[in-house]
Design a protein that fits this description.
The structure is a homodimer of 596-residue chains.
Chain A lengths: L1 H10 L16 H19 L3 H7 L2 E3 L2 E3 L3 H12 L17 H14 L3 H18 L2 H12 L3 E6 L15 E4 L5 E11 L8 E10 L10 E6 L1 E3 L5 E3 L2 E6 L10 E6 L6 E5 L5 H37 L22 H33 L3 H36 L11 H8 L9 H12 L6 H17 L6 H26 L3 H6 L1 H30 L4 H21 L2 H10 L16
Parallel strand pairs in A: 3-6, 4-6
Antiparallel strand pairs in A: 1-2, 4-5, 5-11, 5-12, 6-7, 7-12, 8-9, 10-11
Helix pairs in contact in A: 1-9, 2-5, 5-8, 5-9, 6-7, 6-8, 8-9, 8-10, 8-11, 9-10, 9-16, 9-17, 10-11, 10-12, 10-13, 10-16, 12-16, 13-14, 13-16, 14-16, 14-18, 16-17, 16-18
Chain lengths: 596, 596
């Protein structure tokens, strides 16, 4: 909690939003209250079921997916607490909460139980699509029941033949005389797509209207409920069949369904927004969903870090090298350098990730309240640039962090007696869903870096420069500020090298190692976020006279900065070397296949 | 199979051992026969149960651990086929098989089912301790039943308070008038320590004889059977209680027990070898066990590689960048550069690991047959140096390889419909058991590198030099040979830097980043193994006129060499930078704890 508040109030100044009428309510006091309330809910309804919900699983039975009954209770409680629609405008029954605060809340809840908050998170996201693009009638029909936790919302994109390649989706929609559509097709991997005890499920579904153009330009967005809603509120089955549940390695309590629509030609759907613009509309939700996945990664990594820190502080094993006396009791493992390295690595990844996610949500919030078109464009460009990184780094390096946490437990880490094995299974989904790491990396290099002639990169450089300038004032941080500047120049060089390939027409070579470019880029971003955190810590250390836990926390921030720059940042040397070496493009398919 | 044979016969010349009487039987023909027989057993009894054994699990019930009945059948079949005692001398009922061949056999079987071969592997290893250090009577009493697969063998080291720190074990042994001992204590994490359907379990157990010195110098080795064996062969319960089974993330079909000895003061044990030399005796088995863990890692990574290669060759998704025509069918994912990179990475890690493991087993075999003391010492030093790497690299990077394999499956990789999620869970034990990566790394830097004044490093350098010299003859390989020489110099520099710290008395600083040194060192070792494989491929390409699959395989080796040097080797830049930077030792515990 201390770390979360430090990041919010001291690093990212989230309460500055309260100067705007839209977020006026969210002063520091209100924000603190919200965090406390969220923590209470997490402590009482989420964390105690972390294991149980996993062991119960989500099995297909009698045409639906059986999940632990706490899911229904939590949905109701979250609805009552206002958490599902918290970010929505007050006139729609929301709390108009800034996303920076809302995501802090979700981080807390996710650390307690990353499977369960999927249900509420998706419902809120699906409702947002309806209130952003739906008709007033649609809003009135669906949103209140979604916000109350009675109805579940989903995003239904993936099909068996169309995963990463959404352009290839084939679910069809046929216009009827009453203005509704008849939907026919299959969707897979639909999170919370159906489960025991839920009254209705509102799918925000992509489908292709008959006669629409091929590819992404012929995709439209529909509301396809599990049960149709009559004007009197009664429910009629809508020919959406749950054909099965995916049995997964992790997030086992999170129902993932296989849906078949229109087996009886009676699946009704209603267009949301504009015909053939469905993918664009959906992207509004997907960008939010990407941030959410990053947040899930960070929250799982956070649960792993604190669990392993506690274990390291309690478990005696072996003796510190400087004291090998066998007649003395064993040392706590936190005294071993290698264990400390693994703890520091986790902390650097997790807190750095959270800081980046907060950077993104603040950009989002400022975008909502800005009335200056130029500023809006800048905020949007920067947010778009950072989004694939905010999805990928906490997912990929979060998984690495959790693995290091597991290692600290030794053999126990592999056993179900401790939470680490579950966290290790759970987080592995993050690099996969809402666009794999490969897709995010191509998005970063192929779209975001080159957008508006590279303007986003310049805006980023300015942000970094700001932190460098402040850090130059503190002797202890100066060397790190200089390092970050050098790293920025190196990133620029690598970028120019790659863009040069694209300009010479070698688009395949340009994007072939996008994944490594993502690693290089995100490591730079983390280095920036760590300098930003260290600056905030320095400010506090120089103006307060901190003691106790507060002092530890602030000094810990400076230590993590140093750790990141010593242990992680040098990896840019390796990625740069590989990315600049294009003497031979080894990964590009040739006519003669030799991979065997 | 082609790759395995290439590594055995062409890279490591395993049949050269047949010139020695001890291994005279193992010509290429016999070796091929053995591989074929092993593959047949793997195809019929192991691979078909890969999933089933995992889902069945290993649950504690009625005082024992329930496992899938195929385990008992496999033990018998392996016994009949002679696989359990294959490496033992013929006079003991073994086949006197060189370990290089035996490990190739185990690699095949492990790729088919890594949990099941644990049972046979441990039985063979435990028997080896008995025939290396036990009395003739002990040998006659236990070994035949173990080799036949009727009785299970284990190694019982770990205790709740003594995991990595074996010096702290407290299980006690009290000498009785009849020369046997009474054992009292607890052991945890005992693989195959008890399970349904097994007639007897022979624990090779470490315990402390009453009055023995503290620490590792007071530990002795005992045979502690589940049932005592009378002279007429009848069995009596030996007061070894199975108190529970560990519920694990992976290798779920491999029973892991918690044992309590001597609750009724009636647990008999018999000393094996010399009093207080138990840890030394056990290390003979542990070195073999470390190679086995490396082999498990490599075999799991191999199963993952071939599964993901097959999927990539069958799954259409998206379109190759050079052909975005939406009216054409989707491309196979193997055509995408990022998928190819993940496949090549897996292949480079897996085949490189297997090559290193074969290097080690050949050193072991040559050590067995050498009659030259100086040569023996050299072989031993080199084997000791490489063993922690052969355990760690295939475990750590094997897990990374499997994760890349899983990623190729997209969302399906996270689901139980495909084997990747299980392989991902299974391999995670490898960096933990038989000494964690942290322990192996300290062993490498703290003991092996500095042993005999660094002689092992010189012997290694000579081996590397040999490959470099050959590679300098092939224009295509020359640049890689030069790179490897430079890397060797760099490794030397880093080593001197670290050893310098130790010489100045900073032993804690010297070992603090042993883990990173392991990464640096093992990457050099892999680069050497890849040059060695490429040399062998070049020899074949230049002397044969290879076609079809043979040509693909040989060209694939050169491609993997290039891939490793472009994508993996540059990482040495990062580790070297970190290891040389000791301006501040961040991971060494200070009085004031700031990790929070």
């Amino acid at each position: 909690m201390d770390n979360l508040r430090f990041l919010m109030y001291e690093v990212h100044d989230t309460t500055s939003l309260a100067t705007n009428p839209q977020y006026a309510e969210y002063t520091r006091e209100t924000s603190d209250m919200m965090l406390d309330a969220a923590k209470q809910l997490a402590d009482s309804m989420l964390f105690p079921y972390f294991e149980e919900v996993d062991r119960y699983g989500s099995k297909y039975k009698d045409g639906t997916i059986q999940v632990h009954p706490i899911i229904n209770k939590f949905m109701k409680a979250a609805g009552e607490g206002g958490w599902i629609g918290a970010a929505a405008p007050t006139e729609l029954g929301g709390m108009q909460m800034p996303s920076s605060l809302f995501n802090a809340v979700n981080f807390l809840m996710g650390a307690a139980n990353n499977s369960m908050i999927g249900y509420t998170g998706l419902t809120g996201g699906a409702a947002k699509l309806i209130y952003s693009f739906g008709t007033k009638e649609q809003q009135e029909k669906y949103i209140p029941k979604m916000f109350s936790g009675d109805w579940q919302g989903t995003m239904a994109l993936t099909e068996p033949q169309a995963g990463s390649s959404l352009s290839d989706l084939t679910t069809s929609a046929k216009l009827m005389d009453d203005g509704s559509y008849r939907i026919k097709g299959q969707k897979i991997f639909i999170s919370s797509g159906d489960y025991s005890g839920v009254e209705n499920v509102v799918h925000l579904m992509l489908a292709r209207i008959e006669g629409a153009p091929a590819g992404s330009k012929g995709i439209s967005l529909f509301i396809v409920p599990k049960h149709r809603v009559s004007d009197d509120g009664s429910l009629t089955p809508n020919d959406v069949t749950t054909a099965g549940a995916f049995s997964k390695m992790g997030q086992c309590g999170y129902a993932t369904s296989h849906l078949i629509m229109g087996e009886k030609d009676d699946c009704h759907g209603w267009l949301v927004g504009t015909e053939n613009r469905g993918l664009r509309h959906m992207f509004q939700m997907m960008n939010g969903a990407r941030i959410s996945v990053g947040l899930t990664g960070a929250s799982i990594a956070s649960a792993a870090y604190y669990a392993s820190l506690q274990y390291a502080n309690e478990r005696p094993q072996g003796r510190r090298i400087t004291n090998r006396d066998l007649n003395k009791p064993q040392s706590l493992i936190i005294e071993h350098a290698d264990v400390r390295r693994m703890l520091m690595l986790q902390k650097a990844i997790m807190e750095g990730s959270l800081s980046l996610l907060m950077e993104c949500t603040m950009l989002h919030d400022r975008l909502q309240i800005s009335d200056n078109e130029e500023e809006k464009e800048d905020l949007d460009l920067l947010l778009e640039l950072l989004t694939p990184i905010a999805k990928t780094y906490p997912s990929e390096d979060g998984a690495r962090a959790v693995s290091n946490g597991l290692q600290i437990f030794g053999g126990y880490g592999f056993c179900k007696d401790f939470p680490l094995e579950q966290l290790y299974r759970d987080i592995r989904i993050c690099p996969l869903y809402e666009g794999t790491t490969g897709i995010q990396s191509m998005d970063l290099l192929g779209r975001k870096v080159t957008a508006s002639n590279g303007k986003a990169l310049m805006l980023l450089a300015a942000q970094i420069q700001k932190e460098v300038q402040e850090a130059m004032n503190y002797d202890e941080l100066k060397p790190y500020a200089k390092r970050l500047m050098q790293e920025g120049q190196n990133l620029q060089e690598v970028t120019q090298h790659l863009v040069g390939m694209a300009m010479q027409g070698d688009t395949e070579g340009f994007l072939a190692d996008a994944n490594l470019y993502m690693e290089l880029f995100s490591t730079n971003i983390m280095a920036w976020q760590w300098l930003k955190q260290a600056n905030a810590a320095k400010r506090a250390l120089l103006t307060e006279n901190p003691q106790g836990d507060r002092l530890k926390m602030l000094e810990g921030k400076i230590l993590s900065l140093k750790f990141y720059y010593k242990y992680e940042l040098p990896k840019t040397l390796a990625w740069s070397a590989t990315l600049k070496d294009n003497a031979e493009q080894l990964t590009i398919a040739k006519e003669e296949e030799v991979l065997c």
